[in-house]
Structures are given as C-alpha cells and as structure tokens.
Amino acid sequence: MKVQKIVTEQYGTNSYIIDNKYVVDPGIGIGKHIKNKVDVILTHAHFDHLLGLNELNYDKIYLHPGDFEMIKNAEINLSKIIGAPIEIRENLYDIQDAFETIHTPGHTEGSVLIFMNNHIFSGDTVFYNSVGRTDLPSGDQYKLENSIEKIKKIFKTKDKNIIIHPGHMEETNIERILEENPYLF
Q: Could you tell me which residue ranges the Metallo-beta-lactamase domain spans (predicted)?
C-alpha cells in the first residue's frame, strides 16, 4: 500500500492519497496532487478535512454516520464561518461497512481511527504528542477520554511499528505514541 502525505494549504491539514484510489481528509489544494477519480475517506467532518472535496473527482465519501449531519450542515462543520460553505448530501457511505475502524467519539461524534494494513489514519482524535480538542460542534471531553482509554488498550495489542497518520502534525508509530503522548501513558 502506497501512502502519500500532502500537508494542505492554509490549515495545515494532513491529507493522504492511498494507491491513487483513495483520498483521506481532503484539505485545500489536494486537487493539485491527484486528477483521477477517487473515493474519499473521512476521519471526521470538520471543514479543514473537507475543503478539498470540490477539487476532486470522487465517487463515494466514507464517513461515520455520527458525522452525517455535520457534513450536511455548513454551520456545524464550521465551513460557513470561514466563508466557504460545504454541505454534502449525496454519495455518503458508512465507513464501518467498508473499512476496519474504531469509533472514537470526542473530537466529533463520528470521529474514527481507520486501520489499513500497517497504517492507522487517526484524524484529529490522537496526534503523536496530544489529542484532539473538544470545544467545537459535537465535541465531548468525557467521550474523548473514553475513546483515548479504548485506543490505549488497542494500541498495546498491535504491532509497535504500525504507522499513525494524524490529521495534523507529524506522523509517528504505535511505539513512539505510547512513549511520547502523555494522554496514552
């Protein structure tokens, strides 16, 4: 599996192109890097992970149903606030039916970690040294704390070399995140 990381303009969103077939969390400018038809995989539905959708020729959007309302509403996904309203109502598919995921509510109700071979796409749930914020629409500190506990248990059973691709900042692996992320000690 080939994963290409693109740090997109303006919001520093990490977007990922997988085998030229999928785009994970398409941020602004992703269209410069891929022209063929793709399916989109979303870790959650905040605007910075959606702004590149209009640059892509896509068929399906995979997202957790907990964020279906968010992707359909520019006020909830916060795209209206930045003057680039995005409201997607078609081609939405439950990510749990197509990919191995862990539902990790907290950053948003529909946040997920996506497992693909030796890669985990963690969106804004967990970063190499931090976790996602909970002060945005559908964020919930209590749910995030429960999700982090679940992640900790799962990561301790996985191969330590699995690469973690977050929605922002640098990539890491399970070994490093368990050693350096104070939320996962």
A: 12-168
